[in-house]
Amino acid sequence: MNRTIRFVSTVATLLVGAFAPVAAQSAGNGYLFHAPNATVAVRAGYSRANAASDVFDDVTSDLTLNKGDFSSLTFSGDIAVPITSRLSAVLSAGYSRSNRKSEFRDFVDNNDQPIEQTTTFERIPLTVNLRVDLGASGRSIGHLAWIPNKLVPYVGAGIGAMRYRFKQQGDFVDFNTNAVFPSTFVTEDWALVTQGMAGVDYNVSPKLGISFDARYLQAKGDLGSSFKGYDRIDLSGLSATIGLTVRL
User: Fold this and answer.
1) How many domains does the chain have?
2) Which residue range is the domain that position 155 belongs to?
3) Of 70, 108, 169, 232, which is most buried by a Cβ count within 10 Å?
4) pLDDT digit string, tens, across residues 36-47
């Protein structure tokens, strides 16, 4: 987790350093010539998967996995368009993927070798959100200048669809015969997702800011024929990200 925090902090610093000269050329001395028409944000961070359904219970019981293995780095982006001075419509997309090797805890093959497999868990949420700024994002001076505030906290909520994929590939045990067999089990589908979010924008120039964002996604999906007998898979989780915002 500490490595993740250091990674995303370094990325944000590099992005700000790279784009700051461009922002300075296209804005006034500490102000924009108009309130922004849109804001684009790109962030990276960590996504903690709840992994609370029975398919996760079984794979963590039978295999050398734990529920933390389904959490991973995450990448996300937003396009926000203001509706009023404090309310914006936000289109969001994200991506997280864990890929973990494992073996059966209580079984070995005929050569006393571990029975190995790889489990992949992938989530791609696409959402439409309403964001409410808890403070003014900036102020106009006359009709020709707009100055952003340094700190802008916000909250929001949204709904959308999540593309998800759960895959296990490798060797497995038939518990009826104890025979070992190679196979691939995979399910891939779309699910309804809702989310809540909160964060703060720290503006470092008229056009650039650093965004600190936390989101909780709520979703469950069908597992399909590869995982018969299981309840719906838990796709929910909490993410924390940091990144760059650009006002257009």
Assistant:
1) 1
2) 2-247
3) 70
4) 889 999 999 999
